[in-house]
Amino acid sequence: MKSWKHYLGLTVVSSALLLGACGSDAEDDAATEDEATEEQAAESDTASESADQSSEEAVEGQVSGDGSSTVAPVMEALVEEYAATGTDVQVTVGVSGTGGGMEKFIAGETDFSNASREIKDEEKQKLEEAGVDYTEFLLAYDGLTVVVNPENDWATELTVEDLKKIWVEDGTTKKWSDINPEWPEEEIVFYSPGTDSGTYDYFNEVILEEEDMVQDATLSEDDNVLVQGVQGDKNAIGFFGYSYYVANQDTITAVAIDGVEPSNETIESGEYSPLSRPLYTYVSNESLENDAATYDFFEFALDNAGAMAEAVGYVSLPQEVSDEQKAKLEEFKN
């Protein structure tokens, strides 16, 4: 196929023959070159203006958060995906537990605080006294998962009442046979999230009903420590967020509670009760209103929370709930 330049050439030659103007080709070429130069200059100016405008609109800055180790997998995935977009915003997230994160949030050290439970009344009061206004956002759903060692083939199904007998301090050395006489007369080895953890608080509320936990439990804010503890002892029992079970399901066994195993379906439906729970992040209103970097990150986070939750082993929010979270954020858009 002949190019548009070929046909333009024929047109110029024909015009020259008809008009008998020997110098017209050179004049036309010069005019064409002048027009092209002007167009290129205009395009260059437009590109420069666009680059300047883009540079002026580019968001940059630093955003910091802390809090729940249970929320950490989904939040860290969001931070990693956000960084991959090429943003100039740097987001850092610590993992000191829900309570520890709230302490930093109250002190004004962070822009947001991740939590695996709802904010406590005393935390609300401290935030009010510190002059920190905040907004609560739901990120995903979790099923607090009770696990045992794969060699444990006797306690793969427990009731809520069994869990309470196992975990409540009663002044005795707990053995499996204390729960069921047919089970081994072996001492139970306990692994639990630390007292700053929202997972600890949630378990304490719905299982222990505010009674004291066994004193000889190994406590850690790092859920990976709990996973490793259960992996290494056939008499061990522990609990943590569903994501940590999914990541290690080949080496630990999830316990069915009242006949229901934790899964995406049972967690989302609420059938896995009472251990299904929402995961939150609490964000400073001041940061959302006055810091474009914080708003930009959370706009990305709420748009992608569902996909990241599923990717790390949690359960995404129903669409209508997700839309509600985005609507809350849009109230801060400038």
Key structural traits:
12 strands, alpha/beta, D-Maltodextrin-Binding Protein, domain 2, disordered N terminus, 5-stranded mixed beta sheet
- What is the strand arrangement across the widest sheet? 2-1-3-12-4
Parts with pLDDT < 50 across at least 5 consecutive residues:
1-27, 46-56
DSSP strand content: 15-25%
Number of strands: 12
CATH architecture of the largest domain: 3-Layer(aba) Sandwich
| H and E order | HHEHEHEHEEEHHEHEHEHEEHEHHH
Q: Give the termini distance in whole angstroms.
A: 53 Å
Could you characterize the architecture of this molecule?
- The chain contains 14 helices and 12 strands.
- The protein has helices at 4-19, 24-57, 72-83, 97-106, 121-129, 160-167, 176-179, 198-206, 223-231, 242-247, 264-269, 285-290, 292-312, 319-330; strands at 60-67, 88-93, 112-115, 134-143, 145-148, 157-158, 189-193, 218-220, 236-240, 253-254, 256-257, 276-284.
- The protein has 334 residues and is α/β, with parallel strands linked by helices.
- It has 2 domains: 59-141 and 278-330, D-Maltodextrin-Binding Protein, domain 2, CATH 3.40.190.10; 145-274, 3-Layer(aba) Sandwich (D-Maltodextrin-Binding Protein, domain 2), CATH 3.40.190.
- Helix 13 runs antiparallel to helix 14.
